[in-house]
Amino acid sequence: MAIKTTELIRTSQSWDGAILPDFPNGKPELRVIRLDFPVGAKTGWHHHTVINYGIVQQGELTIVCQDGSEKTFHEGEPLVEVIGTIHRGENRGTKPVILNMFYVSSLGQKITIQHPEMERDEKTTIQPTITKEKPKPTSKEDVRIQKLVLVLRKQSLPRRQIVAGLGLRQKSRKVFIDNYLKPTQAKGYITFAYPAHPSLPEQAYRLTAKGLDLYAQLIGEKEIINELIH
């Protein structure tokens, strides 16, 4: 009797379309984790630092990102998780969810970072102030800052994903740091996702309150966004 093989997915992107990072250097460590979600269960807000993917063995699992985007994965469907983006899993279905996930990392690397502060923020959410002034760029630096703000949106991202979102080459580290990262940090629009550990290998960046205010203005001005894209 012949064995049937079925390729469920082949991709270099996570489910939200972001480009997956390169494999880590050094000795590899592979992990397989089974997650059981009772009906109505939710994970805490978190983000992953490594490539991870899996199969929904039972039920329906909804992944919700910090910016409000979401996607539901059904029984038997493959899932390639987002990396660097704060999100959580929710079982909104009528039966328990069983999810088997596979993680590819360097030996001993931390694969998941929890964000308990997000739980507190949900209870006391403060909306950014939106002004009527149009934030039209007046220089190349302004344009770059606004591009970076639009890439980050309301999520935390590592450098590699930000560079990909800006359309830069991954080898353009100095260009990214000098032309995008430093000016945006200097003007107070972004900060470290983990300020207590600025040298953390999986360090990410997020918008400050000032950055969220600028983002809110930008997404309300379609002509500004068109100027940045084209």
Question: What brief labels describe this structure?
Answer:
230 residues, alpha+beta, four-stranded antiparallel β-sheet, three-stranded antiparallel β-sheet, 26% strand
Give an overview of the whole structure.
It is a single chain. By secondary structure, the chain is α+β, with helices and mostly antiparallel strands. About 25% of the residues lie in helices and about 25% in strands. The chain is built from six helices and twelve strands. It has helices spanning about 115-125, 140-150, 160-165, 175-185, 210-220, 220-230; strands at about 30-35, 45-50, 50-60, 60-65, 70-75, 80, 85-90, 95-105, 110-115, 155-160, 190, 205. Helix 2 crosses helix 4 (about 175-185). The longest helix is centred in the C-terminal third of the chain and has 14 residues, at about 175-185.
Q: In angstroms, what separates the terminal alpha carbons?
A: 57 Å
Look at the helices and sheets and give the structural class. alpha+beta
Largest sheet: 4 strands, antiparallel
Q: So what's the overall shape?
A: globular
Number of strands: 12
Mean pLDDT: 84
- The helix/strand order is EEEEEEEEEHHEHHEEHH
Oligomerization category of the chains in this entry = single chain
Q: How are strands sequenced across the largest beta sheet?
A: 1-8-3-6
* Amount of beta strand: 25-35%
Contiguous low-pLDDT stretches (5 residues minimum) are: 124-132, 222-230
Radius of gyration: 19 Å
Assign a percent range to the helix content: 25-40%
Q: Number of helical runs? A: 6
List the helices and strands and how they pair.
Elements (H helix, E strand, L loop, with lengths): L27 E10 L8 E3 L2 E8 L2 E5 L4 E4 L4 E3 L6 E4 L6 E10 L5 E3 L1 H8 L16 H13 L4 E2 H8 L6 H14 L3 E3 L11 E4 L1 H11 L2 H8 L1
Antiparallel strand pairs: 1-8, 2-9, 3-6, 3-8, 4-5, 4-7, 10-12, 11-12
Helix pairs in contact: 2-4
